[in-house]
Amino acid sequence: MHGTAFYLARTDALSATDPFAVATTYRDGAIASSTVKPHDLRQQFGGTLGGAAVRDRLFYFYAFDGQQRGFAGISSPGDPAFYSLSAMQRALLANRGVSAAKINAALNYLDSLTGRVDRRDDQTIHFLKLDWQAAKRHRLSVQYNRLRSAVPAGLRGAPVVDRGVASLGSGETKTDSIAGRWTWAISPHLFNELRLAHGRDLEFEQPQTPLPQEPAIGPGGFAPEIAIAPDGFSFGTPAGVGRQAYPDEQRTQLIETAAWSFGHHLLQLGVEGSTAHDEVSALSNTVGTFRYDSGTTNGRAGGLVDWITDYTFNVSAYPNGGCPTIYAAVHLFCFESFTQSFGRQSVAWTTRDVAGFVQETWRPRATLSISAGLRYEYELLPLPQQPDAALDAAFSDRAATSIFPEDRNNFGPRLGVAWSPFGRRGGVIRLGYGVYYGRVTGATVRSALVNTALPASSLHIRITPQAVTACPQMPTQGFGYVCSYLATPPAAVASTTSATVFSRRFRTPMVQQGSLALEHSLGGGIVASASYLINLDRQLQGSVDLNIAPATQTMTYRLVGGTGRTGVRNGEQFVLPVYTSRLVSNFGPVTAITSGVGASYHALVLEATRRSRAGLEFRASWTWSKAIDEAQSAGGSPAVNAQLDPFNLRYDKGLSRLNFPHKAVVSAVWSPRVAGGDSLLLRRAFNGWTASAIFYETAGRPYSYEISGGDNLSGGHSTINNAGGAIYLPTVGRDTLRLPDTARLDLRIARVVHLSERVALHATVEAFNLFNRVNLTGVEQRAFLTGTASAGVMPLIYQDAATVAAEGLNTRPFGTYTAAGTSNTRERQLQLGLRMEF
User: Fold this and answer.
1) Global confidence as pTM
2) Rounded CA separation 581/585 (Å)
């Protein structure tokens, strides 16, 4: 019997402080901000145990891994200047009839929703494997894996979160899987393997109980979400929390493979089948969301000013709100939009996959190997469940809710060559090519199943203060702050609902991958290589709003201010079509899931490795790459409209958000060794130590000049051309800016002590980001605000520090760094560990 046991610990006491973890408070006009380092203790523990249950016949292996983490979070506005209203903003509030005392009361209320939150992230993993040598030619194995994870109030993991203390959300994950394998050696040259697996993955999220002071008027006694932008503060029930099963998936997979070796050939055949049954109960935003965000046009001055106005003049205190002023002939509420979802909560479906492959490897000589193969893949999607005849009639030539795609021509050839033209010691040339196909994700299938704009499916509404509809909580008043629909809204509101359909030309994603590598030994145990990699991606998933009528007019946009670079210069102009109406007024956005997006990736990789000699080994690599795409979908759920212009995809071709032009990785491991002829003291002092380090340097994250403002079509989002799509500056395109490079050095020092002949103790100290480099990961991207159009020209006002101050806004200027933390690039952290082997 052999085994291990380990314990690892990280604590905030040994970690550095995130420079962007700034908590801000407000108390009767007194504003205080400071960097914080909340309590964070992460403990990991576990071990392994294995051996022979029956000698030479039955073997077992068990592993356990557990984590207990208590990490506090600080609820605070995202911008330290959030509470600092400018003189212009206070003057506007006074003009709306909001007194200084009312402003103070509103800000005190927001502060009452902030503070410390105790969060947890606990997890256990069990793994058991049994191997049975049933006969000389037959071997059976079975394995079971179990994972349980819970994050009470822990869906947001940053030290400081821009949400209320009761708005973080909780989540749980339960995963179980069992797999079996039978290997049969039919003859010395013929082998067969059969694998069978079944697993279940259940993930769900839950909102927290609202605070007593929150307006818990929505369905289930929850409070609508109030989102104050930009970089502001949100409270209430998060729109994306409340997923009771996201997903509850059960998958069964069967794989049969055979291999036959004869002469210089190896022939492999295989077939694969899988069935996935998904049940998803994940209707988001069922309580509703008020969004507050504005520029300086139409008597506005930022989302916080608008929320303070609505908080003061709510549906109970002043039924018609206070925008642009309560003294105007027509005064409305100040929120930008209200969205809410209704109808079908859950949906179930089954997806089936079939695949098969054949591959031959031929070695005509010792220095040449050629592999060629072909793989076929087929995915059978479920049938539509709630087709909408009226919607299909309107868009039948382009998309439909009654038809799901079926792609039957997914043949993927594969080729690989390894050649040593000057013998094995003279280097190796490797060539590879293959065609690969992707799957349609479950989130995409679910969206098309439930979002068909029927009352029996899911409805998603989006209204503005101009909508004429009653407040369910105050039936005699118009809809405003704070209201929430408790049932399906009136038809006039429901007509803004969105729908999701598959394009009739949809195909599964196809990727062509190629590589050419040269590898050569330089002596001294060092092997160097140079590789060229290429990806040509076609039929990638995108989305576009079909329910937009062709433009009948254009608008000229003029930049007011800028950076001085081409395309962002003061006075430069561009023209875009402006969309003013829906094709079918009975619907809001009708999102077509398309597959017309393309992408390309080219990379050069230089690498050198040294095998362990005299206790030292290392590896170094440098990658240059370039990725271009047409704004492919970033996630499984399709965006309402991913294109800048719904009738022209060419605007969206540009550098990919995944484009990181260079990356360098250097790693080394050193284990000093003192020979037996040296003194016992030296051997004890130096032997048993291992030092390992790894250094990463990567290009920073790309980002864009974004434009805020504009108008919207019914049910859509606001953009400068009203289409509700992408918001980047079209004169320079997407992702043309880049954050500074990220770099970090991780170091690990380990010492092994042999307590006895069969027991060894390993002690480790690990430092992540040893030199505490600040790696920037977030930036303010709101570069331009729309002004007031005149004579067919709309100004786009550049948001630098001087302009923001002149406008009287309390928002961050464009380009302000906002974050320096991801799971891989955080402030310095230390981890201590012990591991025992026996």
Assistant:
1) 0.90
2) 8
